[in-house]
Write a structure and sequence with these properties.
Elements (H helix, E strand, L loop, with lengths): L1 H8 L5 E7 L2 E5 L5 E4 L1 E4 L5 E5 L8 E7 L4 E4 L1 E6 L1 H7 L3 E2 L6 H14 L6 E6 L12 H5 L7 E5 L4 E4 L1 H7 L11 E6 L2 E8 L3 H4 L7 H17 L2 E9 L1 H12 L6 E7 L1 H8 L12 E9 L29 H13 L3 E6 L2 H14 L10 E4 L17 E4 L1 H15 L10 H6 L4 E3 L10 H10 L19 H7 L2 H6 L17 E4 L8 H5 L3 E6 L2 E5 L12
Parallel strand pairs: 1-6, 2-7, 8-15, 9-10, 10-11, 15-16, 16-17, 17-18, 18-19, 19-20, 20-21
Antiparallel strand pairs: 1-4, 2-3, 4-5, 7-22, 11-12, 12-14, 13-14, 22-23, 23-24
């Protein structure tokens, strides 16, 4: 009784598992306001227990104490749209993303084939004929000149077109008589397939590609995870996870190797049902993996002229792009997912695709009430008349700033500037009250949130072009860009109760930086460096070394 009475009278010591102290901390509070702190208490559950100011008393008993050495500490980035396994396989196959010309790309293909004579196929990714200044797609004949006898299959940087040599087409049985499946296009030259396959037409060759072994998938995942961690990504929405992808994530979790948090959106209904069953999965592996929804694609991309437009392409007057499903198919698929409580994310780039998707959401919202958080992925080219419609039905605009920096020249060539007044319209989305979530579409673009923030603030590319920004009225503030990469990403993934900020009760997922980006110029933000990445209160990446347990200074 005496001890109980004393416990009520005497102040109890502050208890926590760890303290990261002496930091220039920044985060957002419950009202979305930027707040600062000097120390971060981490509980034994890996969640934030308290934010400390300089005047606050520090706990006496701790499992660890880490000196932040005055560095800036901020919430980890959430990449709201990426392709984890594609990023990993990019490092295991031929990567053409650095090729600056067709000649350079062909030299890389030739060199790779010579260095890997045992490979039955030459498989690669990352080529971009727009970056080569070409007015045409490359052709099979180009590849035949350097690799005639081994089949070659090279996926375009956007993942919506691929380039084959004649040997690959021969093995796939593709001839002049082959018809493209619905939602696809075979580029033709002199009455014969040229070697370029767009959107669903890629399946004509992909069906005969050798499938990666589970151990190869595990290696690809390991490569992707390290890449993402090195860039400060603590959580990523994996858009279009296949069943094989999901199993790779599960294997990593089973073996204790799942360090990043993955919010998986299944590649279609069949994968959704096979992986998750009749409802979204719970959080698995201590909050590191969940499948809350499904992803569909309504059209292709501007680069391959697959984006579905209301009017023909300016540089291809007979083409308006490729709808990948009919309006009825779209509504049926969305309805099937929504009836079991799955979140729906739909790729829509062209103005016609966005209008069709908005129509579908308007209709389905009459049946499926409540907090659905319909996600429109990319939302790049939108008719100005359709912009206000994003504010209905709780729609989330999931957008990628680096696409604007990479695409503005191409977009003008494809459509003409007069049709692009509401393209990549970040400021308009926010002005209309539309929740904004930013990502990278990695590996289409690098998962570099600092570069994305700089683009969001300036509408300029890495070379500072165009000077003053492309359609600068759509620039947003640093604070809004930071929110879109943190709070916005958490909200878009139905994870705002645990991710996106360092409020008490959220996971201690944070970054230690070499500079204070809250007072930096856009150019300085681009050059900011991640020094450490912590997830769940534990270091997962340390620049220049391997993650170690926090130094015990007791």
């Amino acid at each position: 009784m005496l001890l109980s009475a004393l416990a009520l009278i005497l102040p109890s010591p502050l208890l926590a598992s760890g303290l990261v102290d002496n930091v220039n901390g920044i985060t957002f509070d419950a009202n979305g306001k930027l707040v600062r702190f000097d120390g971060l208490l981490v509980g034994s559950d890996g969640k934030v227990e308290k934010l400390l100011q300089r005047k606050d008393k520090r706990p006496e008993k701790l499992d660890f104490r880490t000196d932040g050495k005055g560095r800036t500490l901020m919430p980890g980035f959430i990449d709201s749209h990426g392709h984890v396994m594609a990023l990993g396989f990019q490092s295991l196959t031929l990567d053409l993303s650095k090729a600056a010309s067709l000649v350079e790309a062909l030299a890389m293909v030739k060199s790779y084939a010579e260095q890997n004579p045992q490979r039955r196929w030459i498989i690669g990714t990352g080529w971009n004929h727009e970056a080569w200044g070409m007015r045409r797609f490359p052709a099979a004949a180009d590849l035949d000149a350097v690799v005639p006898d081994t089949p070659v299959w090279l996926e375009r940087v956007d993942g919506h077109a691929a380039w084959a040599n004649s040997k690959a087409m021969q093995l796939a049985g593709v001839t002049a008589a082959t018809k493209a499946p619905e939602g696809g296009r075979i580029e033709m030259e002199a009455g014969r397939p040229s070697g370029i396959f767009v959107d669903s037409a890629t399946s004509l060759v992909e069906r005969i590609l050798p499938a990666p072994l589970p151990k190869e998938r595990d290696l690809a995942f390991s490569k992707a995870q390290q890449n993402l961690l090195s860039q400060g990504i603590t959580a990523i929405a994996d858009m279009g996870s296949s069943l094989d992808d999901w199993q790779a994530f599960r294997r990593a979790g089973d073996r204790g190797n799942l360090r990043i948090r993955i919010i998986s959106y299944a590649a279609g209904i069949d994968t959704m049902l096979s992986a998750a069953g009749s409802e979204p999965t719970p959080w698995l592996y201590d909050g590191h993996l969940r499948m809350p929804g499904v992803k569909f694609s309504l059209d292709g991309t501007l680069g391959s002229r697959g984006a579905w437009l209301k009017a023909p392409y300016g540089d291809a007057p007979g083409e308006t792009g490729l709808p990948l499903m009919t309006g009825a198919q779209l509504r049926n698929q969305m309805s099937r997912a929504a009836m079991d409580g799955f979140q729906v994310a739909v790729h829509a780039i062209g103005d016609k695709a966005n209008a069709e998707l908005l129509d579908a959401i308007d209709e389905l919202a009459e049946t499926y009430k409540g907090d659905r958080r319909w996600r429109i992925e990319h939302a790049q080219i939108v008719d100005s008349a359709d912009l206000p419609r994003f504010a209905r039905n709780g729609i989330i605009a999931s957008m990628q700033p680096l696409h604007e920096a990479s695409d503005w020249r191409m977009a003008e060539a494809r459509m003409g500037k007069e049709r692009l007044g509401s393209a990549y319209a970040w400021r308009s989305m926010l002005a209309n009250g539309v929740p904004l979530a930013f990502g990278s579409d990695v590996p289409v673009e690098p998962a570099n949130a600092f570069a994305g923030i700089a683009v969001a603030m300036t509408r300029e590319d890495e070379q500072g072009e165009p000077f003053g920004g492309w359609m600068p009225e759509q620039r947003i503030t640093l604070e809004d860009a930071l929110k879109a990469y943190t709070l916005g990403g958490a909200y878009a993934a139905r994870a705002e109760d645990r991710l996106g900020s360092l409020q008490p009760g959220r996971y201690a997922d944070f970054l230690l930086l070499d500079s204070d980006i809250s007072i930096a110029s856009p150019a300085e933000i681009r050059t900011a460096k991640i020094e450490e990445v912590w997830i769940g209160g534990k270091p997962q990446f340390v620049r220049g070394g391997s993650p170690a347990k926090p130094k015990d200074e007791q």
